[in-house]
Amino acid sequence: MIETFETIRYTADVVCIRDGALLLIERGWPPHKGQFALPGGHVDPGETSRTAAARELLEETGVRVDADDLDLIGVFDTPDRDPRGRYVTAAYLVTVPADTIARAGDDAAAVRWMPLDDTGHLAFDHGAIVAAARYRQHAPF
User: Fold this and answer.
1) Topology of the domain covering 16-137
2) Is the pLDDT of residue 107 over 70?
């Protein structure tokens, strides 16, 4: 029997809502350069996905949230969700005050608050993550 091992990368993504709008970053690098995506990134050694989600949100958008305020949407692990290889993400939902300001930071070419009914095509499977967040909340935010 030949055993095959797959390298799996562990990430965290955030659906951040402000007054009916979704916070997105514009990707400044491949894959999906120039497309909008959820803030997120790799879980560092010794870090939980919840802590990583809060850290990535801050690093990429300047939006600070307490990790305890993040609600788990689910785990997304479809084998082909990322063209770079096997990525498994824990996705979280957080609602921030209406006066929250975001700015492009680490790994983001730009940030944008986009109306939830007009998010268009998002990179990776992030549209499915947003849909799952909406379903989980049983309301259109």
Assistant:
1) Nucleoside Triphosphate Pyrophosphohydrolase (3.90.79)
2) yes
